[in-house]
């Protein structure tokens, strides 16, 4: 457990140290321009109930196709954006795009919630709940058409402000998941106080289930903890049938991962979703 914490600590340190390097600044400039252009897109990864295979929702994951570099991973550009005012614009873009997609799907009978990742900084933005409620109303969508995911690390900083926004979102009825659980430092008390509905167990623990007895113990105890608080446990990084079976045995509610389904562009996701839900294909084009 310590090793994992140390590992993410190291990544954070490297990102901090290099925050003003010319390469990072130029990437940030490119990202600023990309927000208004066609280089950004959302892919959608299904979240699947482990007991019966039911599709519970999809997670929207940002994709950037840089004109020179090709694909740039969100693992690279999100931390960069988080250190600047750009994160707010990026989140607004993602929420607008997810709402638009949700409207197309929900109004064609595909009532699949879309989960959007937001960063700690977004929770300091009191405009976020307003943007969401206005967007949901404009598209005539129920509050649970959009879910939010925030990483566990938000618990560490700016707790009071985040708690305000989280309360407003909960009052709106927008479900909230705590992402990357196990990589931060939450205590049981904090977890209980936060109004989250779902806890997503970080892929770094899940991927080695079956190989590492330590990871197995960690995942099992997280699932027990989450269930005992009356919350839903979702595993990230389900890369094999064996891992899915183990998680099911441990009472984990749902999973995401390459073995279940990869993140897909909207037009592929809709085909996947319709085939899984065995709904008749819409007569009008839906993407
Ligand atoms: P996350 O929210 O924890 O998303 C899960 C990540 O795991 C995604 O990486 C997904 O592609 C990847 N993944 C899915 N299945 C598997 C699997 O079976 N094994 C493994 N090892 N990985 C799997 P991705 O798309 O590269 O995104 C990385 C992170 O970037 C996300 O982690 C999230 O924190 C952040 N991110 C992505 N899109 C957005 C966004 O629109 N807004 C914000 N604020 N953050 C975003
Ligand atoms: Mg997430
Ligand atoms: Mg995660
Ligand atoms: Mg992550």
UniProtKB/TrEMBL annotation:
Source organism, top-level taxon: Bacteria
Record-annotated EAL domain positions: 24-277
Protein name as annotated: EAL domain-containing protein
Organism (species): Herbidospora galbida
Span within the parent record: 411 to 697 of 697
